[in-house]
Amino acid sequence: MALALRAARLTHSTCTNYGYYRTFQGRRWPQHNCRILFSTKTGSEQMQKSNYATQQQQATKPAGKPPQIKRNVAAEITSVGKVIYETGWDANKPKDLQKKDNISPPTSTSSATTTTATSSPQPDEKKDEQQKDKAGDCQKTKREQMRDNVQDYIFTRYFNYVKNYDKVLEKNFPKAMQLYRVFFDGVKDFFGDMKRFLKISRIANDSPQGIRALNRQELELYMQMPRDMMKVAPALIGCSLPMVGYAFFPLVFWYPRTFLTSHFWTAQQRSEFQSYYMKRRLQCNKPVFRCLQSKLKSMAGHHKHADFQCILGQIGSGFHPTPEALIDVKDIFAEGPYSLLGMSRKHVKCLLKLHGLPNSLFKRHRLHEHAFLVHYMDQAITREGGVHNLSVDALRYSCFLRGLNPTNLSNELMIEWLRKWVMVSTSIQAEHITLFLHLPILLGYNHPNNWQMIYGKSKA
């Protein structure tokens, strides 16, 4: 308050006009600062007059009680704060800068009044109640925390038990879990191949090249998947039926070679079943060779009769003809008893067994379709860089599909044999399709691996 009065008197004595006003330090104050100081002066004078008026009124009253001076604390606080705000005093600012700017800190009386006005002591009873409430809240939070910890422990143990329940079953029932995993993985692989087959079929139907637009792997799946779908359909339908599935499921796994495909077989079962099917096919080599020999006399008038007779003599003596010799006699298979329509029924049945095809209706059509699919595979192998670019599994499957036993056979021997096959296959046309069907006899009849599988000993 004293600071405001002093500043107002000083400005009143030095102000002369509405321009700039000079202070005792020689500085000029703008007009709006002067107006602010005038307003503070008038406000303080009015406050003094009001205080004096109240004192005079109290003095005129009867002297029953001693006179009391009532101060308008709120007005004083606001006036002091207004002066501090307008002069720009800052407690964090250094004192040297405040002296240069003629800014003085607020008086201690005003700060004391503000602290006394704002601070109000709390009763002891309220403090005790607050402490009790805090203690109760702490106890509640501890109980809730303990309960949450117990719940978390129970649920984590339960979820871990459920997650690792397959390990518990595998420990207690190892065979049952093995069958379950084989069946589950087999179904997943089977449906994955079925989706690929549908996609490949769509590509083959939409492409102008047809089946020739497919690569080797797609052609293999396109040829094998329809047979697998027909074979595994009864097992999947029977296992899905209510009540019947409980009895049908063990029966399916008791005879996996009959009811299931290679998707559901283990590695050991694949090897065993592949050897079984290969042996059944190789046992038809001799009947097919006898059919070729029996029809040789009827082709006596053909210009390639002598050459083909020499080839059959080589096979009977334990040797194999060269690919060039087979390509040279390909015309003998285009007509007569060696053509697809001229072969006898016995000859057709033996060829079906030789290639592992089902003995059902439309036998000649099945042979024709199988021959062209394998022929397109050979062309795809040539497009993809040759036989030497195939993987080990692809080499084994290619030999198995074409009538050569790949068991205990080195990669070099498989590549050499497949090169001869591909050389003959890519050199024939559609009318020579029966030559392609007889290639397992003409190139693999006397192979040591085939001979050992049929008779249990290698042929010297």
Automatic annotation (TrEMBL):
One of its GO terms (biological process) is intracellular monoatomic cation homeostasis. It is found in: Mitochondrion inner membrane. Keywords: Membrane, Mitochondrion, Mitochondrion inner membrane, Transmembrane, Transmembrane helix. Residues 104-122 have a biased composition (Low complexity). PROSITE patterns: LETM1_RBD (PS51758). Residues 43-60 have a biased composition (Polar residues). Residues 276-460 form the Letm1 RBD domain. This is LETM1 domain-containing protein 1. One of its GO terms (cellular component) is mitochondrial inner membrane. One of its GO terms (molecular function) is ribosome binding. The gene is LOC115633154. Residues 43-70, 94-143 are annotated as: Disordered. It is a single-pass membrane protein. InterPro entries: LETM1-like_RBD, LETM1/MDM38-like. The chain crosses the membrane at residues 232-255. Residues 123-143 have a biased composition (Basic and acidic residues). It comes from the Eukaryota. The keyword Transmembrane applies.
